[in-house]
Amino acid sequence: QVRLVESGGGFVQPGGSLRLSCVVSGFAFSTFGMKWYRQVSGKERELVASITNKEDRTTYADFVKGRFTISRDDAKNTVYLQMYSLKSEDTAMYYCNVWGTNYYGQGTQVTVSA
User: Fold this and answer.
1) Which of 8, 23, 77, 114 is at a distance of 20 to 30 A from 32, taking alpha carbons?
2) Are the beta carbons of 106 and 6 closer than 8 angstroms?
């Protein structure tokens, strides 16, 4: 059974940092790329960042370039999203996803507010 568990969300002031983690089980993690999405209530889910398997090539949405970093640790079956210089508009539920599938975690809430 495929399972994705996100953690690391919370409340932070503008300009602050958070690191999200997503631990994956139930499939061969190292053979799949991974993605982070976010969603604000009432709006569509949007892609934040992605990372391939093997070469760890990364891509980012324009609205997070230079502020967020996606990475993975295949030995720990974990994908990370390091977030710096957080803005109020980054407030959302963040989900990890197995690339090319409908497997998502339950999400972790990030709230950026003064």
Assistant:
1) 8
2) yes
Q: Which DSSP symbol is given to 90?
A: G
- Asked if 112 and 87 count as a contact pair (C-beta separation under 8 A), the reply is yes
Give dist(CA 27, CA 62) in Å, integer: 31
Q: What digits encode the pLDDT tens for the residues 26-42?
A: 989 999 999 999 999 99
The pLDDT tens digits of the residues spanning 2-22 come to 999 999 999 999 999 999 999
Pairing of strands 34-39, 92-98: antiparallel
| Burial class of residue 1 in the structure, from the number of CB atoms within 10 Å of its CB (0-12 exposed, 13-18 middle, 19+ buried) | exposed
DSSP state at residue 43:
S
